[in-house]
Amino acid sequence: MSRSPQFAQLGALLLEAGFSATDARDALEEIRERIAPEEELSFAVLPEAVFVSPLTGEAGSILRMSFASSLSTRQSAMVSRMMHRLRDGRITLEHALGAEQQRIRSATMRMPLVRWTAGNTLLAAGLAVLFRCPWWAVLVAAIVAGLMGALSVLLRRIRPAAAIVPFLVALLSTVLVSESAAMLGYSSVPLFAVCAPIAILVPGALITNALLELTAADVVSGASRLVYGIVQLGFMAAGIAAGSAWIGLTIDQDSAFLLADVSGVLSAGPAWASLPSAGFSWMGVAALAIGISIAFGAGYRLTAVSIAAMGVAYALLVLIAPFAGSAIATGATASVLFIIARLVERSSFAIPATITFQPAFLLLVPGTVGLVAITSFDVAPVAAALAVFVSLCIGTKLGSIVVDTHWWRLFRRRSSAV
After folding, report:
1. What is the pLDDT, as a whole number, of residue 417?
2. What digits encode the pLDDT tens for the residues 57-103?
3. If you average pLDDT over residues 219-234, what whole number do you get?
4. Residues facing 50 on adjacent strands
5. How many C-beta atoms surround the C-beta of residue 412 within 10 A?
6. Which one is predicted more confidently, 340 or 69?
7. Rounded CA separation 412/101 (Å)
8. SS3 assignment for the chain
9. Whole-angstrom Cα distance, residue 378 to residue 161?
10. Taking 70 as the threshold, does the pLDDT of residue 412 lie above it?
């Protein structure tokens, strides 16, 4: 009896867990060689579809559709650990698709509306503190972020509105932040007071998977994901731009555009107009990691890993940027962090690389979104933002090449032998 339907079901589960098409196909090949070496099967994986075709005989291909990345962070980690046990032969394929899959699907994220509201509030506050917005702006960003987190969950339940959620949320967020600043008597708004409430919508995992797939020559999957990710970023940028034009928003040109600019921001205002001291930066890093973990349904151990990943990313950026500039620092940080994420994925933690990498992606990307959307009249900042984004893409690819090539696997085998 052919195992094609089982492998198609397993592949769909991997896509739901947020695996890239490349990683899902490689995992299916490894499992086939482990448990059914006599059965010759070919796997074709797209972002939301898995094709399993026998190489011999007259049986047709099996198609299995999937809603990509529909599982919580905790469920995705459970899928990754299940795959480790399958590779090691500790469980059978039947058990994995039976009792194990049922256990994974039963561990759904409870109260998603509450979690997204609380998580986005904490995430926005952390970003605003990290980029040294005045205390009034930190408070406004956190309150607006809570409202936007709840709104985004509700809008996604309306199927026709799901595609334009980034635009609507960015538009409304910009208006609310600007109006709140005016009510408090402030004429200009720091950049990240505008960007922080919508940072959770940045498609970090989507673009990371796109870069992985393009690196592995999965052009169709990688290009489609990358285009969709850029379209989402474009919707966010358009929402911010539309809200800014509508309300007449004025951005504080002395605020930090990129993380490397933070040290140059000076505090001159009294009381609520003062800036958080540099010592609060690490609290902002932790708040950002905890916020995204709450929003996406991570457990305590996954949250600890996210905090560590964020800490490494922040430390690398702060250390490298003064010497090499923001663009190179971003690429180097992305490369090192992705290597660490891959190693964590292959360790006993078995956390998918995209989950470990996503919080740091939020640390690197939102400034690009804000710059392109709001300061588009100034060519130099836009060019710098694009350079940072290109560096991020190249760094992620280089990190993937280092840990996913044959010579790295050979090095690991020699190390284990010693």
Report:
1. 47
2. 666 678 787 765 578 888 888 888 888 888 878 888 888 888 988 99
3. 83
4. 45, 64
5. 13
6. 340
7. 31
8. CCCHHHHHHHHHHHHHCCCCHHHHHHHHHHHHHHHCCCCCEEEEEECCEEEEEECCCCCCCEEEECCCCCCCHHHHHHHHHHHHHHHHCCCCHHHHHHHHHHHHHHCCCCCHHHHHHHHHHHHHHHHHHHCCCCHHHHHHHHHHHHHHHHHHHHHHCCHHHHHHHHHHHHHHHHHHHHHHHHHCCCCCECHHHHHHHHHHHCCHHHHHHHHHHHHCCCHHHHHHHHHHHHHHHHHHHHHHHHHHHHHCCCECCCCCCCHHHHHHCCCCCCHHHCCCCHHHHHHHHHHHHHHHHHHCCCCHHHHHHHHHHHHHHHHHHHHHHHHHCHHHHHHHHHHHHHHHHHHHHCCCCCCCHHHHHHHHHHHHCHHHHHHHHHCCCCHHHHHHHHHHHHHHHHHHHHHHHHHHCHHHHHHHHHHHHC
9. 33
10. no
Q: How far apart are CA 186 and CA 79, in angstroms?
A: 49
Return d(Cα 414, Cα 418) in angstroms, integer. 6
Check whether 265 has a pLDDT greater than 60: no
**pTM score of the predicted model:** 0.80
Enter the tokens of residue 383. 């060019």
pLDDT tens column, 292-325? 889 888 878 888 888 888 888 888 888 887 788 7
